[in-house]
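re: ur msg from earlier - yeah i can do the LIQMQMZN complex, just paste it... oh wait u already did. ok heres what im feeding in:
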Amino acid sequence: MITTTETMISLFHDFKGDAHRGIHIESVMTDTRVPGRKSLFIPIVGENFDAHSFLDKAIEQGAVAALWQKDIDLPAYVPTDFPVFFVEDTLTAMQRLANEYIRRVEPTVVAITGSNGKTTTKDMAASVLRKKFRTHYTKGNLNNHIGVPLTVFAMPENTEVLVLEMGMNRAGEIEVLSELARPHYGIVTNIGESHIEHLGSRENIATAKLEITAGFRESSLLIYDGDEKLLAGTKGITCGFSDYVDRKAENILLHDEGSRFQVEGSTYDLPLVGKHNVKNAVYVLTLAEKLGMNPEEVQSGFGELTMTGMRLEKVLGLQGSHVFNDTYNASPTSMKAVIDFLKQYQAKSHKILVLGDMFELGYHSRELHASVAESVTPDIDAVLSIGEDSRAITEEVARRFSSVLTAHYKEKQELIEKLKSLLQEDSVVLVKASRGMKLEEVVTAITNE
Ligand SMILES: CC(=O)N[C@H]1[C@@H](OP(=O)(O)OP(=O)(O)OC[C@H]2O[C@@H](n3ccc(=O)[nH]c3=O)[C@H](O)[C@@H]2O)O[C@H](CO)[C@@H](O)[C@@H]1O[C@H](C)C(=O)N[C@@H](C)C(=O)N[C@H](CCC(=O)N[C@@H](CCC[C@@H](N)C(=O)O)C(=O)O)C(=O)O
Ligand SMILES: Nc1ncnc2c1ncn2[C@@H]1O[C@H](COP(=O)(O)OP(=O)(O)OP(=O)(O)O)[C@@H](O)[C@H]1O
Ligand SMILES: C[C@@H](N)C(=O)N[C@H](C)C(=O)O
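and the outut:
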C-alpha cells in the first residue's frame, strides 16, 4: 500500500473529486499499457507520448486517482468523483510522493552510483543484505529520475533496507535522486568515461557522482573507489587494491568461475568473474559490516547471487564454445576490464573479442575507442568490431599485433557469418558494446538453441 487520497491532500492541496474518502492506493501507474489495480495514475510527458492523453485507458486499467499537470485541460469524460490532484509537474510530484513514502516506511537507504558496476554491485548488495534484512532493491536497470521513484513505490511497507541504483548522464541528476532518497549509505563504484559527452571530463563525472551525498543525513557514510585519484580526500571509506585504501582486497585468486580474495584476514569466494567484481564485492562486504553482518553471513550471500543479465553472462556457444554476453553497456574502462578477464580465462585458449561502438564519448570518441587496444595482447586470437567508431579499435590492434586477426563490419549479419566460421570447440567469445548497439543479437546467433 502506497498511500490514500486523504494523505495525498496533505501533499497536493489543489484537487477535485472525492479525495476525502481516503481511497486506498496500492500502486503507481505510469504506463496504461500495463494494468494497475487500485493505482495512482501519474501521466509523464515523454519523448514519444504525453500520457495525459491516456486517462480514460488508465481508469479502465484500474486507476482510482490521478496526478494532473495544471497547464493541461482535464478531459470532460472524467467522473466528477474521480480524485485528481493538480500539480505543476507530474514528474516532480512523483518524486515528492516517493520521498514521502520513504519517510513513512523509514528503511535504511543504500544508494549506489558510478560509471560502471552500479547494477552488479546493487545485485550483490541485495543478495547479501537479504540474508539478514527485509530488502527491496532496484529491478534490472531502473535507475533514473523515473526508475528510482518506481522502485520506491514498489517497496513493501515492512522493508528494512532499500537498495537504489542511481544513474545519470548529466550533472544534477544524481543530486535530485539523492535528495529524494536521503541515503544512509552511498557507494561510488568507479569513475570511468560513461556519458563523458555530456559531462565533458572525468573530473566532471567524479563531481556528478559525488552528488550522491547531496541527500546525506548527518550520520550517512560514503563507501567508494579508493584507487581513483579523482576521489582522493573524499570523506568516507575507501576500498580497492592500493596499499593506502581503508579496505584492501588481498591475495586475489582469479579463476574461470569467479575469484577468491581476502579483506582484513577474512576469505571470500565470489562466483562472479573479473577483477573489477572483486572491488565491487569489497564495497558490498564493507556495507554489510556497517549494517552488523559478519563475514560468514556475507559469504553466504555471495553464494546465492541473483544477477541481472548481460553482464559477463556466460552461455554455451556453437561448436562447444563459451560465450560471455556483456552487451548491456560499454565504456573504455569497462571494455578494458573485461578484456583483462578474457586474457586470464583458462578453460578455452582460442579467444575472440567482438566489440561494438561505445556511445556518448563525445569529441574524443575515436581515440577513446582506440585506447581499448592497449588491453589487447597476442593472447587474443581475433578482434572483430562493428559500428562506426569501433573501427579504431581493430585498426589500432592490427597496428600493434600482426598475429591477431582483425576485421571491422558495418552489418551484424556479416560479422556473425565470419564469427561462425571462426568458432571451434576451444573458442571463447566475449561480446561487448553500448546498449544502443544491441549486440545481444550476435550472442543469440552463435549460441546453441
Ligand atoms: C518515461 C518512460 O517511462 N518511458 C517508457 C516508455 O517509453 P515510451 O516511448 O513508450 O513512452 P514515452 O516515454 O514517450 O511516454 C511517456 C509516458 O507515456 C506512457 N505511455 C505511453 C504509451 C501508452 O500507450 N500509454 C502510456 O501510458 C509511457 O509509459 C510513459 O510513462 O515505455 C518504454 C517501453 O516500456 C520504456 O523503455 C520507457 O522507459 C524509459 C526509457 C525510462 O526512462 N524508463 C525508466 C523507468 C528507467 O529507469 N529505464 C531504465 C534505463 C535508465 C537509463 O537509461 N539509465 C542511464 C542513466 C540515464 C539517466 C537519465 N539521464 C536518463 O536519460 O534516463 C544509465 O546509464 O544507466 C531501463 O529501462 O533499464
Ligand atoms: N567496478 C568496475 N570497473 C570497471 N568495469 C566494471 C566494473 N563493474 C562492472 N564493470 C563492467 O561494466 C559492465 C556493466 O556493469 P553494470 O551493468 O553493473 O554497470 P552499470 O554501472 O549498472 O552500467 P549502466 O550505467 O549501463 O547501468 C560489466 O559487465 C563489466 O563489464
Ligand atoms: C541504456 C543507457 N543507460 C546507456 O547506457 N546508454 C548508452 C550510451 C547506450 O545507448 O548504449
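cool cool. The chain has 15 helices and 22 strands. ping me if u need the other ligands too
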